[in-house]
Amino acid sequence: MAGDLHFLTIAQAAARIAARQLSPVELTEAYLTRIVALDHRLDSFVTLTADRARATARMAEAEIMRNGPRGTLHGIPYCLKDIFDTKGIRTTANSKLLADNVPDEDGFCQARLAEAGGILLGKTGTWEFAHGGPSWDVLFPPARNPWNPDHTPGGSSSGSGAAVAAGFAPATLGSDTGGSIRGPAALCGLAGLKPTYGRVSRRGVIPNSFSHDHVGPLAWTCEDVAILMGVVAGHDPHDPGSVDLTVPDYRAALTGGVNGLVIGVPWEWLENELPLSPPTRAAFDAALAVYRDLGATIRPVTLPPLRKYEDSKKIIAMVELFAIHGADLRSRPELFGASLRYRIIAGGLIRAEDYVHAIRLRSDLARAMQATMATVDVLMLPTSEPAGRLEPVPPESLFTHMSFMTAFNVGGNPALSLCNGFNDSGLPFSLQIVGSLFDEATVLRVGHSYEQATPWRQRRPALTRAR
Q1: How far apart, in whole angstroms, are the C-alpha atoms of residue 146 and residue 144?
Q2: Angle of helix 222-232 relative to helix 10-18, nearest 10 degrees?
Q3: Contact 147/165 with Cβ under 8 angstroms?
Q4: In terms of CATH architecture, what is 14-307+355-458?
Q5: CA distances (Å), origin 275, targets 179, 182, 227
Q6: What are the structural domain ranges in the chain?
Q7: Residues with a known catalytic role
Q8: 248 exposure class (CB count in 10 Å sphere: 0-12, 13-18, 19+)
Q9: Which of 41, 121, 326, 424 holds its CA 20 to 30 A away from the CA of 279?
Q10: What SS3 string covers the chain?
Q11: Tens-binned pLDDT, residue by residue, of the chain (467 aa)
Q12: Are the beta carbons of 72 and 14 closer than 8 angstroms?
């Protein structure tokens, strides 16, 4: 049993802890031992807080022995993308500019996780400032995919996705400006949720694009994502984008199935704008068949062209990126990695009128998306193709590449990525489920129903000590 502790879900581990069958100290030590033994293959962690984790685990164990757990996350280890402020622990954003940055206080989400009794194992790798990468000329090397270390785990929450898939932690948080939660979730075979814009506070998270940044969880199952959302979702008056709405019981809302639900598919995107490879199309069709068997109805929907969503987001985000980093670019350009430096410069070349037009276009696109969402319960489409090889990417690819994820940052809608099979090379396929604004509960229920009906959650990557 001890050898399997690192692959327990949050829900499984919490149940054992509550029943006094598992100690937080034992669970924490299992993860720390595995990280030390195997993370040299993946480079997922950039800062390991082993001593602090052990001390927190001992405290959690004593508290639980006295009074029982105060919640599902009490005694559960987790890790954080290295753009989340952690008091007394350096937060670098994988940039030489922040090599010695040690925050004086925790960000909102870290404070929530600690208050819930979680045990921080350390900080995980990110592309530089959650934007430039993968890069080899920054503080830390890029993380690798545990299903095949020669392949990318996606970005920018790369270390977070790799760590959870590899069994180095059961829970993590990432950020998503154009797909940086869902991309690593897709390529690493996880469940990863970009909540509705404003649902989870971004205070204490180093910004990328003020108007498109989202914060959300990655874990092995939709149930675990629901547990994490129950901890971090909620209003924060210190985040100007935070929305003051009641947070539902996401875990309780997983029940009920999908019988009678209507699923919309934007076939124009999938067949003409960004055609799927035959294997990815086959995996997607198979997933739709599962939902039909579960009683859902599948119907086509029409959305504005994918390219319009891409163009609007990229113009806005590039200008905002320049607003954040322009001063450092002028005074200390040598401290940026080449990929991010190139991308920041581009933001300084955009005219004010183009920025205004992009914002107006975004409003039109977001309204069109909400109008379509009013006709269905969820949208469904692949998240991405399976992981490619880990290698340098031309910086200009940010501007030319299209994805199935960016549109939902423009609309602000909740979007979940989860595993829907594996290709012939053993790399995960991915399914994306999108909901109406602030309806993460339905999105997670639809994802959970699929996980319960399919075998994919039983398969984990095999790692060995040899590089």
Answers
A1: 6
A2: 70
A3: yes
A4: Alpha-Beta Complex (3.90)
A5: 18, 19, 35
A6: 14-307+355-458
A7: 81, 156, 180
A8: middle
A9: 41
A10: CHHHHHHCCHHHHHHHHHCCCCCHHHHHHHHHHHHHHHHHHCCCEEEECHHHHHHHHHHHHHHHHHHCCCCCCCCCEEEEECCECECCECCCCCCHHHCCCCCCCCCHHHHHHHHCCCEEEEEECCCECCCECCCCCCCCCCCCECCECCECCCCCCHHHHHHHHCCCCCEEEEEECCCCCHHHHHHHCCEEEECCCCCECCCCECCCCCCCCEEEEEECCHHHHHHHHHHHECCCCCCCCCCCCCCCCCCHHHCCCCCCCEEEECHHHHHHHCCCCHHHHHHHHHHHHHHHHCCCEEEECCCCCHHHHHHHHHHHHHHHHHHHHHHHHHHCHHHCCHHHHHHHHHHCCCCHHHHHHHHHHHHHHHHHHHHHHCCCCEEEEECCCCCCECCCCCCCHHHHCCCCCHHHHHHCCCEEEEEEEECCCCCEEEEEEEECCCCHHHHHHHHHHHHHHCCHHHCCCCCCCCC
A11: 345 899 999 999 999 999 999 999 999 999 999 999 999 999 999 999 999 999 999 999 999 999 999 999 999 999 999 999 999 999 999 999 999 999 999 999 999 999 999 999 999 999 999 998 899 999 999 999 999 999 999 999 999 999 999 999 999 999 999 999 999 999 999 999 999 999 999 999 999 999 999 999 999 999 999 999 999 999 999 999 999 999 999 999 999 999 999 999 999 999 999 999 999 999 999 999 999 999 999 999 999 999 999 999 999 999 999 999 999 999 999 999 999 999 999 999 999 999 999 999 999 999 999 999 999 999 999 999 999 999 998 878 777 889 999 999 999 999 999 999 999 999 999 999 999 999 999 999 999 999 999 999 999 999 865 44
A12: yes
Phi, psi of 7 (to 5 degrees): -110, 10
**Encoded tokens for 69:** 């757990």
16-21 LR contacts (CB < 8 Å, sep 24+)? 17/64, 17/69, 17/74, 17/75, 17/76, 18/64, 18/68, 18/69, 20/64, 20/65
* Contact assessment for residue 407 and residue 303, using Cβ atoms and an 8 Å cutoff: yes
Query: Nearest CA to 85 among 105, 56, 69, 65?
Result: 105
